[in-house]
Amino acid sequence: HYMMGGIRTNTWGETSIPGLYACGEAACTGVHGANRLASNSLLETLIFGKRIIQRIVLGGRRQERRRRGPRLSLSPRPADGRAPRLTMSALQQLMWEKVGILRDGEGLATAARILARWDTNRQPAGERRAHELANLVLVGRLVTEAALARQESRGAHYRTDYPEPGPGWRHHLVFQREPQ
Questions:
Q1: CA angle, corner 157, sides to 49 and 75, nearest 5?
Q2: C-alpha span between 36 and 40 (Å, rounded)
Q3: With contact defined as beta carbons under 8 Å apart, do 79 and 120 qualify?
């Protein structure tokens, strides 16, 4: 259950899509710092769940200003070179070795290339396991690209090539899907 990140919401559980709310483990409310789960899911589920119900029952949508970090999108990376065959264990091994606890730019760039290749050479969708693997590759790409972009160490994100926190990095990185 351990993931730092989630669906960006305001303190009423509202997302950027009108009428779509998120709370608990799925949400990133911004009430915790860098070394916490995106949301303290148990407590926040109670508090933000109640606030979401209040918002729905009472109606209205109040936009709250949140300090925004840069908006990122998954840019196509050249998927050149060879990549191992995509399996669950190959994905787990890649993420552990290149995007795990100790990270560096070279390993992250290698992982990004392999993940991009896997993303472009997807298995035909149709069966559940293929969908699950495709979703895990997407999450792997997002985590890897965020770790590459953040050229510092902060909280549980540690880069051996940038071992100290950087003063300009005190914000979330937000990925936003481009309309298709």
A1: 85
A2: 8
A3: yes
Q: What is the number of alpha carbons within 13 Å of residue 2 lying toward its C-beta?
A: 4
Q: What is the pLDDT of residue 155?
A: 83
Q: How many CB atoms are closer than 10 A to CB 136?
A: 17
pLDDT at 1: 43
Structural domains of the chain ordered from first start: 7-58 (no CATH), 75-175 (1.20.58.100)
Is-contact 88 96, C-beta < 8 A? no
- The phi, psi pair for 23, rounded to 5°, reads -150, 170
Of 172, 100, 112, 107, nearest in space to 142 by CA = 112
Structure token pair of residue 128: 């559940």
3-class DSSP assignment, residue 49? helix
**AA letter at 136:** L
Residue carrying structure tokens 């970090």: 69
Residues 17-46: what's their mean pLDDT? 75
- DSSP letter for 154, please: B
Report the candidate in 173, 147, 141 with the shortest Cα–Cα distance to residue 159. Answer: 147
- Residues 34 and 156: beta-carbon distance below 8 Å: yes
* Tokens 């950087």 sit on residue: 166
Chain segment 80-99, per-residue pLDDT in tens: 566 678 899 999 999 999 99
